[in-house]
Amino acid sequence: MEQFPVEIWLSAIEYLDDKELQALIGVSRLFFELGMDRRYQEVEITTGDKKAKEWLTRLLEPQVARRVKKLTVQLIQSLYNTPPTASSSSHRSFGRHIADQLRTVVQKVVRPVTPEPNTKQPMLSDIEVLIEAFPRMVNVADFRIVTWAIPLPARDLFPLYDAAWSAFGGNLKRISICANLNGFEALIASSPNYVKLETLELEFSDLPRIDPAADAAMLTQTVVPFVNKLCPQIKTFKIRSWANLDLSPFFLNVDPFPVLKTTLMRIPFNRALSTDPSGFTKYIHESSKSLTKVALRLSPTGLALDPYIEQSLCDWMEALVSDPRCFAKVKHLDICPTHLAPGMDILHHSIQRTRESIVEFTVRDRYLGPDDVVAVVKGLKASQSLTSLRLNVLSLSAAMFDLMAQTLPGLRTLWLSTGIPENQSSLDLLGNDMKTRRYGNWKLVDLSIWQAGNELDEAIMLAILRSIPSVYRLWEDDAAVRRGDGDSVQIIRFT
């Protein structure tokens, strides 16, 4: 067994879960190394959490710390000492008074004992242990830091950042910064040097104040210069914003990304681009020279209360996709076209722009009626490279599967979501209709169908599986697969 090449063992352990691999750690030095690598290659620490101390103690050991490749650190306020409230202080004062009285009585009848000196070291806070452990984590290449819950001045985090950048800042390929603007300012002021960075993710949360002018100044004077320094090397750029923050000043001043391949923007259009979306338009159009993967999740806040709040987003998206530069080389497109009528035009233009390159096409939020599904599927017919399609549909029908199997024979992954059917008879009709179908030439392998957020009724799913013999994997889950064919088809679940 020991004569097998390492590459064979590396391939074999891919089939073992964590518990199985941990059980083999004592078998040999090879399995010890592989098991330890698997266990500690990804570490998540939330300061103040009960498990944080246990993790941090282990990370002080060099043979453990060097295995960490992906590190997530979330700082929370409980890490720091907080002053007692007036009520708790008064309660403790009364307690101390009683204790003093008892001590006086005892000392009158018992000979005093000289207390031994306290030789115990004071307990270190989680952040102090992190600072001590960071120099041992020299192989971290993926770092996520979450500081939005820390209300302290920027200087309090300098020792933490200094230790991190000294240990692995120069090795980082990806960093994800989750903070409010004060948190971004603190990190940027620590002067990190990310010479190997390729993926930059920014996640904005709210400050405990409302000052748009100050926010704009911090974006343009602090965040923009930080990002501009990295623009020439960044291949993946993502922004998520949960804040009441206008990012227009950021996009109006940020430099081009000449080698950008992937972008994800999950920002509410009516907040994040409220004053001037032209900088964001320029960002998408200029980046389209190199972009191959785009996700635009721009649904506005308050949509449930006012459907027409999408109007400005809809108008902007129409103008965006009407430009021939838009999505010119995109292979993976994830888009929310709004619920408004022009949303179908947005989808049509997006399909037209990507028809020569598209591999994966995802439509979110908007539910497509039968005619809309026909329009989208027929529009994708010319996309010979398409292998994955994700849609929300108002209803399921055998006619829809007929169309997809005939029009998109090379499709390998299909994800569909539908709402609650008007009545059970519509589902029964689908099940009966699918019994008469068989799509022998369809190459579909991975099929997910959801109904009102749950897996589609199993009897209906089985009827669909009988008609598509190529399907193997279900609901994007390796633990749910298809077995058999025809009347013997089953859904097998592994635990």
UniProtKB/TrEMBL annotation:
- InterPro entries xrefs: LRR_dom_sf
Q: Which SUPFAM superfamilies match?
A: RNI-like (SSF52047)
Gene3D superfamilies from the entry?
A: Ribonuclease Inhibitor
Q: What is the name attached to this protein's record?
A: F-box domain-containing protein
Source organism (scientific name): Candolleomyces aberdarensis
